Amino acid sequence: MIGLSPLLERDSTVPLYKQLYVYIRHQIESGKRQRNEKLPSIRELSTFLLLSKNTIELAYQQLIAEGYVQSRPRSGLFVLALEPVMEMVPMVCKKDSQGGPGQQERPPLIADFQYGDVELERFPLAIWRKCLMDAFRFESRQVLGYGHIQGQKELRAQIARYLQASRGVECSPDRIFLASGTQQAISLLCQLLPQIRVVGMEEPGYDGVRTVLANHRLTIVPIPVEADGLSVEALRRSRADAVYVTPAHQFPLGGVLPVGKRRELLQWAEETGGLVIEDDYDSEFRYQGQPIPALKAMDALDRTIYLGTFSKSFMPAMRLSYMVLPERLAGDFRARLESYSQSVSPLLQQALFLFMKDGHYERHVRKTRKSYQARHRTLLHAIHREMGERVGVIGQKSGLHMLLDVYGRESTELVNRALEHGIRVYAPSRHWMNPEDCPDSYVMLGFGGLEEERISASIGRLKQAWFDDRT
Fold first, then answer.
1. Are 428 and 457 in the same domain?
2. What is the DSSP string of 409-424?
3. Secondary structure (3-state) at 381
4. Are residues 150 and 175 in the same domain?
5. What are phi and psi of 218, to 5 degrees?
6. Are 213 and 369 in contact (CB under 8 A)?
7. Does residue 42 sit in the same domain as residue 111?
8. CA 278/CA 265 separation, integer angstroms
9. Residue 91 lies in a domain
10. Over pLDDT 70: what percentage of the chain?
C-alpha cells in the first residue's frame, strides 16, 4: 500500500520534486510516518503519482541529505527518528478592530533564501547512479572497507589535476587529505598540527569554522576585514601563528582579496613562520572579471594550507572536502593520522573518482556555473527593479549569496516582515565574533537553491513586505 497522496500543483512554479519533498517531510515531522517505516520505492511512487522517476529520486535525495530518511542497501528507504522540536507558535499581529488581540498563522513558505542550498534540478542523477553502481564492481576491500587514511589515491590524483587546471595549484596526491566537510578538516588541523595555538580569524568570518576553533580551545583573534580585504597590519599585531582566510570570496561580505594584499599575507607568513589556511569554498562561481588564482598558487615558500570542498560545486550530501598541506607538514600530519579512520565512505570516493575521470565533474561545474550566473543576474535585476536606491548590494561578484543593506532598517524587523509574506531571509550577525558589531540593516540572501522565476517573484514580495506595507 502506497499511503502517500500529496496534492501536487503541476502548474506551480515550485518544482514537483520540492512539493513532494515538503509533503513527505511534513508527514515525518507530524508523526504520520513513524521511525523505521519504509517508503514506497521510486518505481512504485512514480507509477502511483504519474511522475517521472527522476522527480521521485530528487525528492528522496533531499530527504536523505537532510536526515529524514535513510537508504539501506537492497532494502529501500526508511524513516529516521527525529529529535522532538518545539512547535511553531502562531504570530501575534496587531489588535483587531474591536480592540482585542488578534492572531494569524504565517502564510506557507514560498521561498527560502538559505545560504548553502544548491541546485538539484539539473543534477546528473543518471550518470551519478551509474558511477555508484560501477563502484561496486571494484575489489570489495577497496570500496567496502575503511579505506586509506588520506583517501583513495586515484581520487586524490584527480583532485590534484583539477586544482592545477582550475586554480593553478600544483601538488602531489601525497599532500592531499580527504575529510567529511570543511569543519572536520579544520578539526583535524587543530588536533594534528600542534604549532597552531593562536588563530587569526576574518572579522566577520564563517562562524562554522570559528565554532570548531573555539571547541578545540584555541585562541581566536578577530582580524578586521577592510574595504580591500583582511587587515594585514592588524594580523601583524595579533601574534597569531595561523590565519584563516577566504580570499576568493570573503565570507560573508563577498569581497575578493586583491593581489597586493595576498603578497602581504604571504610575506607575513614568511616573516613570522605562520601558516595561512585558505578556504576556497566556492571559487568555481565567479561572475565578473577574470578568475584570480588561488593564494596557494602564489605561495612559493609553501606556507599555505589549502581547503576545498565538493559541497557547493557537486552536492552537500557527498560530505567530501580536502586539504592540501605544505610538503614539510604532510609527513608528520600523516603519521599522526595513522590512528584515525577515514571519515569519507570509500564507496563514494570510488564513485567520485569515476565521475571525475570521465569528465562528468568538469561538465557539471560548467553547467551549474551558467545556471548560478543566470540566478545571480536575475536576483540583481529584481533587486534594482523593485528596491532601487533604498538598498545596497554587498558582495555581488561571485558565490551563491549576497548581503543586502536595507538603509535605515533593522534586520529583526526585516526578517519577520519577510516571513509574514512567505519569504525567509536571514540576519548575518552570527558571522561576527560580537554579533552586535554587525550593521543592523544587513540581511543575507542565498540564491543557489531557488529557480529564476521564484527569485524574481520573491523579491517582489520582499519589496511589498519591507516598503509597501509599512505602517
1. yes
2. --HHHHHHHHHHTTEE
3. helix
4. yes
5. -85, 150
6. no
7. no
8. 11
9. no
10. 92
Beta-carbon-side half-sphere exposure of residue 30 (alpha carbons within 13 Å)? 7
Q: For helices 125-135 and 53-65, what crossing angle results, to 10°?
A: 70
87 domain residue, yes or no: no
**441 alpha carbon, distance to own chain's centre:** 24
**Neighbouring C-beta atoms of residue 366, cutoff 10 Å:** 11
Question: In the block, which residue shows the cell 488581540?
Answer: 101
pLDDT of res. 55: 86
Residue 427: give the domain boundaries.
107-117+363-468
316 and 206, same structural domain? yes
The total number of structural domains that make up the chain: 3
Are the C-beta atoms of 143 and 135 separated by less than 8 Å?
A: yes
Nearest 5 degrees, angle CA 259-CA 261-CA 265?
115
pLDDT of residue 325: 97
Find, among 170, 156, 210, 169, the residue nearest to 187 by Cα.
Answer: 210
Looking at the fold, whether 371 and 354 belong to one and the same domain comes out as no
Contact call for residues 315 and 448 (beta carbons, < 8 A): no
335 and 385 housed in the same domain? no
Mean pLDDT calculated for residue range 417-444: 92
Same domain, 347 and 386: no
Q: Let me know: does 247 contact 229? Beta carbons within 8 Å.
A: yes
pLDDT in tens, 100-152: 444 455 667 788 998 878 777 778 888 999 998 898 887 766 778 788 899 99
Digit-coded pLDDT (tens) for 281-290: 887 777 766 6
Which one of 326, 358, 390 terminates a domain?
A: 358
**What CATH number corresponds to the domain at position 325?**
3.40.640.10
- Tell me what the mean pLDDT of segment 260-287 comes to: 90
Higher pLDDT, 284 or 191: 191
Whether residues 344 and 197 share a domain: the answer is: yes
Confidence of residue 62 (pLDDT cuts 50, 70, 90): confident
